[in-house]
């Protein structure tokens, strides 16, 4: 899920991770691509990620020239299997884009308004320690201007999903329990008076989907997005800890920043602690199809499409140049604009992106959570080369995090 705190805690380890020589062997496989070496820069960044310590990285690009699939490193440190285009992985906070899309569809049907208050739909839920659901709108949930505290930043909860992971990996959490954790803290700011990435916003948004539709948010996402687009490898696991096949392994250092910190296999976990903020499992191909449809206007009427892409500044530059309703945008060093979201959960770091209109999409996944130069991947794919020095825009992208 975007475990914003995961990225913060693990940033110090990025340049110092080492793995076995076998794990550092980079391989890549290209699919249909009529542009020859157009993806050389992207391939180079992927291979650099593996040399710097990522076990494996998987990527797919779709545009008018065709589909390009590539991988570097391995899917499994024990068997050294290569990562494959059909491999599934946990997408973390890219889940938020699916939830936002469903809420906007419900608005288009007149079943909810973006300016409705949380209190109208969920009386008494967001209350206490200065939180007041009667002053927070659905729109503010989706663009992270609600001020609601982020439950994944709670010290006790953070301990459960880091050093306590082995003991708690199969625990089930309800949305009410997650929101209750957030309510033990003061708001970050008054509603509409700031910006702060909060997973609690999307837990609440998922609960509103259920109230407005009369069905659970997973069913709404499946019928309105997954089935409609034929995303056959995209699933919402609920409380099931298992990954559907085919899939590689997921590896985590559980927040430890020491270069020689132990690497844990975190493939199996109960993602209910992320819920509507980050539980979905998918593939690079399905993510590209989703982003192409969403940015191409296939899923939303024109008015809701404008709402989706109406952004607010993040203030601290945490996520690109602006954040809309579950999706962010940034202008790269070459002047091209991309829409995107990252996602991070134990052992998995993902990125889904598209140009305006959805004509050029790119999705990537790293089977680790302690490093990942996502800005370099965007720069390489959309500009043709990774900048020697990070621009202000790419510095902000580097801080984009998931359930985070």
UniProtKB/TrEMBL annotation:
N-terminal signal peptide: 1-23
Keyword NADP: no
Alphabetical keyword list: Signal
Coiled coil (UniProt feature): none
Beta-lactamase-related domain span: 49-368
Pfam families: Beta-lactamase
Superkingdom assignment: Bacteria
Keyword Signal carried by entry: yes
InterPro entries reported in the protein's UniProt record: AmpC-like (IPR050491), Beta-lactam-related (IPR001466), Beta-lactam/transpept-like (IPR012338)
Name recorded for this polypeptide: Peptidase
